[in-house]
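Structure tokens please, single chain.
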Amino acid sequence: MSNTYTRRDFLKLASLLSLGAVTPSLMRGIQASRLAQAGKKNVLIVVFDAFSAYHLSLHGYGRETTPNIARLAERAIVYHNHFSGGSYSTPGTASLLTGAHPWKHRAFKYYSTVSDDFAKKTIFHAFDDYYRIAYSHNPLVTKLLDQFSLNLENYIPLEQFVVTNESLINSLFRDDTDIATVSWSRAMNKEEGYSYSMFISELYKEYLKTKIKKYEPFFPLGLPRILNDSFFLLEDAIDAIGRQLIDIPKPFLGYFHFFPPHQPYHTHKDFYNFFEKDNLPWIRKKEDLFGRDDGPQFLIRRRQQYDEFILYIDREFGKLVDRLESSGLLEDTWIVFTSDHGELFERGILGHTTEVLYQPVVRIPLIVFEPGRKTRTDVYTKTSAVDVLPTLLHVTGGQAPDWTEGVVLPPFSTNVPDPERKFYVMQARRTEKQSPITEGTLMQVKEQYKLMYFFGYELLNGEERVELYDVEADPEELNDLYPSQKNLGNQLLDELKAKLAEVNEPYL
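Here you go.
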């Protein structure tokens, strides 16, 4: 019987061992030897949920929201025109992890997963010779990670980094998370003044007060939370993951998807009201048909809270990178800093649960930290979330799989960017996995022009809605060109409708 162990066997064995059972120095020694033999760099993807590029001072925003990120970006590659794959977490995250658009991976609805044939068409599967570790605060993302977990050596459960544990519901009922969450809310939380179990709900409220009381002085608006009752501290997850990355097997692929600055925008006391008196200008925009009548003052206040929440992220991400640098790990690690989608504070719309695809909800940050890089490079070429997977494979010596719809990002590609390339984002959250897309919003960007096509919505009364913007000359999308440039608009619309017909054809 052979006693020879493959590298894959070692990774599987390492994933079963408690890190506490091996001394850190011994583990680091083994890892350093293996890393030298493999000659491969680690890959770390850090996602902050609902983070709009329009709110980064790096991109010219009027508030200094990201001083630490700006400091770190002086030795990174900064992408200034990067688009998400979707307008909320399910399609946006699935596109990032698969390198494909929602019409291909089919994760459309809240709490949905990708199609069965895409379950192994992910970044985790593509990096199958790496030690793969993942965590997310977001239950929509954990639904996807559950599906991909067979390709993970270490899948950290959501509840590990929460203070209180409504997340237990998500653990016990992973196949019915959306139903279980509603049931829990009705049983434990008073809705419109009542709950299904008043006695239990009152006990539960007292339990929550006890659990979070010691944190209240540090969070004037309340402890950050996921859904209703899963409270968390960002620094708990950041610090624990930072420590763990130093000692896990190398090379690793890490995917960490944190909830801030997603609603509710509950920042740390150090940043509360930080921007209260800065008088940042407010650009008035006509209320959208899909707006909820959130007035200007309400949106201005929420925008301020969101920006102050970003300051909290900025501090914690800075701490994470500084920790990795002091450990020496940064010398052998690619870091990707990005988001799954953005956030809106305009046109009567708050957040991202909306039918519209205006720039703040679809343009997201992308900063790539290359091992050994000492200078900053700014990339203004348009890029997409589907480009991240093929790029990371390229820079680590792999090849892009045939399922990806992305390309290798500049400056890593030897190809000149295609000026005719089209960039897509879509919203089709009521579409079933195996059904054609008959209601939704499709966005196409080609050169400087962006077309939005709305179809199938009840509010449209059987009509279609089309908007056209020159997003280079008009980044705030104040001037809809479609009424005055019908020829150009219809040409782009025909291209987009042809794409829709193409992706729908297999499901008709």
